[in-house]
Design brief:
Elements lengths: L38 H14 L3 H5 L8 H17 L8 H18 L8 H14 L3 H8 L5 E3 L12 E5 L2 E10 L6 E6 L2 E5 L4 E6 L8 E16 H34 L7 H23 L5 H22 L8 H17 L2 H12 L11
Parallel strand pairs: 1-4
Antiparallel strand pairs: 2-3, 3-7, 4-5, 5-7, 6-7
Helix pairs in contact: 1-3, 1-4, 4-7, 4-8, 5-6, 5-7, 7-8, 7-9, 7-10, 8-9, 9-10, 9-11
Length: 375
């Protein structure tokens, strides 16, 4: 796989992709329709903007698009319907699998333009990707079609969470997993116990609120006490399904994070005394790397792990730099700044920070990389 030729898309100006804000409008298109691959993706982007549109001003002011469980589930249901129309619900076949990740990246880009607590996208898609990998097609279809929600029990802030305790014997699951996103409303829970992928219903689980570095996410600690479980896969098949789904989800989060940094760059674009060019260059690299990571994931490229790790490092760097520059006293849209600055800083920390991802990237490559990198 080769990177696209930059000259083919070059336009005058160093950061032609950055729209200039009008007043306090920070929810404009960050990526033009000419960047979309299909008409279905163009339609999906417009539909997602329309869905989030009534909440745009509220989100820009630091409000929550989905303030309670019912509204989050309703929003997820509407989003699922849009994804189905775009073809994401087709779970069989390599072509559909490739289209899914490029289509989902459109939604991730749009979620980066607002402050929104909508973990169902990440959680349900992760669970659906795992289910498809182990040929649990009925479960995968139910999740991608929005007929149910599910969560794979793994810490959301993975670099900072201790190893979870879990066991499976006599057909029952015992586990304690800290800081899981997307649990509320899930009808199915998936967990990896040793070499077994287990599915079970949440009735036997106790949920308690957990702190989150990214304040736009709701995390809970999950205690599972003897839930009756069904083995969906074992051995290498289970491990591969979880690893591949986690990697694809990580690519989606990179796209969302890059879009969030671009939103911050828009807010700083016309601010006197702020060197937005340096941030723009950083965000440019983040967007490019995130899109490339999605492309590698969609094509099952053997180097997808390196592409995703690179994207996460660059996107985390962009988030930290945006958060540093984005302060109320330096921008005209002071009322919108706090929410985006907090989310930029929080998401970067929640996903490990630039140094953590540089170390991760060094582990995946044969040539050593210096880990001395300032946040």
């Amino acid at each position: 796989m080769s990177m696209p030729d930059e000259a083919a898309t070059a336009n005058p100006g160093p950061h032609h992709w950055l729209p200039q804000p009008t007043g306090h409008d920070v929810t404009q298109a960050l990526i033009g329709k000419d960047a979309l691959d299909t008409a279905a993706q163009q339609e999906l982007r417009a539909a997602v903007r329309s869905l989030l549109g009534p909440h745009g001003a509220e989100s820009s002011l630091g409000g929550s698009v989905a303030s309670n469980r019912e509204s989050r589930e309703a929003l997820w249901g509407a989003l699922s319907a849009l994804l189905m129309r775009a073809g994401v619900g087709s779970v069989r076949g390599g072509h559909h699998s490739q289209c899914r990740w490029t289509t989902l990246s459109v939604v991730a880009q749009e979620l980066g333009r607002v402050v929104v607590d909508l973990p169902f996208l990440t959680s349900a898609i992760t669970a659906a990707a795992i289910a498809e990998r182990v040929a649990a097609y009925d479960l995968a279809a139910s999740l991608t079609q929005g007929r149910s929600t599910a969560v794979f029990l793994t810490p959301y802030e993975q670099p900072f969470q201790a190893t979870s305790a879990r066991s499976f014997h006599d057909g029952r699951v015992w586990a304690r997993v800290r800081g899981v996103a997307g649990v509320a409303g899930a009808q199915t829970m998936l967990i990896l116990c040793d070499d077994k992928l287990i599915g079970f219903e949440p009735q036997w689980s106790e949920l308690t609120a957990a702190p989150c570095l990214d304040s736009t996410r709701t995390l809970v600690d999950v205690d599972v006490q003897g839930a009756h479980g069904t083995i969906l896969a074992e051995g290498d098949r289970a491990a591969y399904a979880v690893r591949a789904a986690a990697e694809a989800t990580s690519a989606m989060l990179a796209v969302e994070q890059a879009s969030l940094a671009a939103t911050c760059a828009v807010m700083l674009g016309t601010t006197p005394g702020v060197d937005a060019d340096q941030l723009g260059t950083t965000v440019d690299k983040a967007i490019w790397s995130a899109n490339y990571a999605v492309q590698c994931t969609a094509e099952d490229d053997p180097h997808a792990s390196v592409a995703v790790a690179t994207a996460r490092m660059l996107c985390s760097t962009a988030s930290f730099r945006a958060a540093r520059l984005l302060t109320p006293d330096r921008t005209s849209a002071a009322h919108a700044v706090d929410a985006f600055a907090q989310r930029s800083r929080g998401s970067a920390m929640a996903f490990g920070g630039p140094q953590w991802h540089r170390r991760r990237l060094a582990q995946l490559t044969t040539s050593p990389l210096s880990v001395a990198h300032s946040r």
